[in-house]
Each structure stands twice: as structure tokens, then as C-alpha cells.
């Protein structure tokens, strides 16, 4: 993430920030806090020299949200914030939409679109399952509508999980129309629930991070267990339908080495896997274009997850007629 650009030297700001990291340091016998702060606009490093530095540092941890009053300053050519006052924020003061990176669409609009897709399902068991998961269960709904799709790669912003899921569903819907044997409602339901385990895999505090269950179990197994648990509560839910739906969840990463315990073994699972992969990679490249286009280089930085550089010049309007190496 970028540094917060709109804090200039001498600017006084009062705002809420997430604590990215915090250290109690000592300079010539005086304790002070060095702290990394973040919000939806970026990050900035800061120091606090107050008399209560030592006490305050023991109350704060990574991921906490703090209210800060400080002055923009510069140190070794880097923008810095000198904190004058700082306190831990109260839970009802925290607005995650201001603290976390934002995507192209409002999470509320995305959530409405998501609920509309649920309404389109006519199979009574699948419709009831989706309703129970995303409408009746407030806990899942709240998290699903604001969580990111991932911590760093694609959709790493508020509402990213819902946006990714909608795009995967749209790709699946189109693909379903090409193949006569495709059971569209099974596929659409699979698309809607394929990443539901992310609501248990990731934690949202001042920033997104994988939690212990996420690291030890992962969203595929967590998702399968959330859905199986809900299916068990629906009287008469057909066994085969349940097994195939769970298959769609557990096989959606496509390969053992990519975290799926089984490979796709029916038409719907195959489509879902490719739709998921297509969206993750295309959205990932879209993110790289936006992130790196201002650097003025022909190619992006090396993208480890894709094992390649991404060509950027084609996305610069003024470069369309000029992509030779000499110029
Ligand atoms: Fe996934
Ligand atoms: Fe996914």
C-alpha cells in the first residue's frame, strides 16, 4: 500500500488509524513510541514522545484502531507524523470503510447484487440453503459483505470477497449456457458459496489477516464444513445434491498443490474452478495495472504469484502508437 499522500509537513490531522506495528524505543534515556499507522488512503510512520509513552504502548497492539492527533513532518526524506495525542478507539467509533482499502464499488451495492442472485435460485433446497447462509445468518452476512477476497493478491479490499464471488457467478452463468448438461442452479449455488470459508479464514481488525483457524484449516475445508452444517438443518435436503455441492467447494482450487483435496470431477466443478481461477488472475493483473502504471516503466515489477512481468504500456493512451523498444 502507498504512503498517505495528503499529509504535508506542518499539517495538523486528527483521525482514526489502524496500528500496523508498534514498538517502544528509547532515545538518550527517554522512552518513545514508534508506530506504523494505516487507513484506506495508505500508510504512514509516526512517533509519540508523550510522558505516558511506555504505559500507552503496553495498551496497544497490532490491529488496534487508534485516534491520533499529530503534525506532518519529514525525516530522512520521508513523510512522518509526530503524534501529540493518541488513544485506543472505542468499538462504536470504528468505521472499517474508512480504515481499510476500498474497491471500485460500494460494499452495500455489491451486497444488494449478491442478494438478487440468491433470489434467482428456484430449487427449493438450494434456495433455502442460500437464504439460511446469507440472509438468516447475520454473522456470515455481515462478514461476507465487507471481507476482502484475499490478504494481498486479488480483491484485497473491503467488499472484495463479495465482488469476486459475483464475478465468478457471472462467468459461471455464461459458461452454463454453452453446455447443455450443465446443472445451472447447482453451479450458481456452488459459485456463491465457494469462498464462504473466508469469513472464518480471515480476521478483520485494523487490517486483514489470516487467523489461526484460517492458517491451520484453510477456507476450503472451513467452507465445506459451514455449508454441510447448514444443509444438515434442512429437512429432506437430497444427499446427492449435498455431496455434489460440497464437491464444488472442495475442488474449486483445481489441484492438490493449490489446496484442493480433490480435483474437479463433474462439469459444474470444472467450470467453477476455471471461473474462479480466471477471475483471480484477471483481477490480480487489473490490480497490478492500477498499482504500477504511474511508475512509467514498460513492464510491472516481477509478479511472483504469476511468475512473470505484466506489460503496462498498452494501457497508457498516449503510448498506443509507440511500443517499439527504441523509443
Ligand atoms: Fe478459494
Ligand atoms: Fe474464489
Biggest sheet strand line-up: 1-2-3-5-4
Tell me the total number of β-strands: 7
Bound molecules: fe (ii) ion
Q: What is the global morphology?
A: globular
Please state roughly what percent of the residues sit in beta strands, choosing from under 5%, 5-15%, 15-25%, 25-35%, 35-45% or over 45%: 15-25%
Helix content: 40-55%
What is the number of helices? 12
Question: What is this entry, summarized?
Answer:
It is built from 12 helices and 7 strands.
Relevant terms:
327 residues; Hypothetical protein af1432; binds fe (ii) ion; alpha+beta; 2 domains; two-stranded antiparallel ribbon; OB fold (Dihydrolipoamide Acetyltransferase, E2P); 7 strands
List the helices and strands and how they pair.
Elements: E1 12-27, E2 30-39, E3 42-48, H1 53-59, E4 65-75, E5 78-88, H2 96-99, H3 107-119, H4 124-136, H5 138-146, H6 160-176, H7 184-193, H8 198-201, E6 202-204, E7 208-210, H9 212-216, H10 219-232, H11 239-250, H12 267-292
Parallel strand pairs: 3-5
Antiparallel strand pairs: 1-2, 1-4, 2-3, 4-5, 6-7
Helix pairs in contact: 3-6, 4-5, 6-7, 6-12, 7-11, 7-12, 10-11
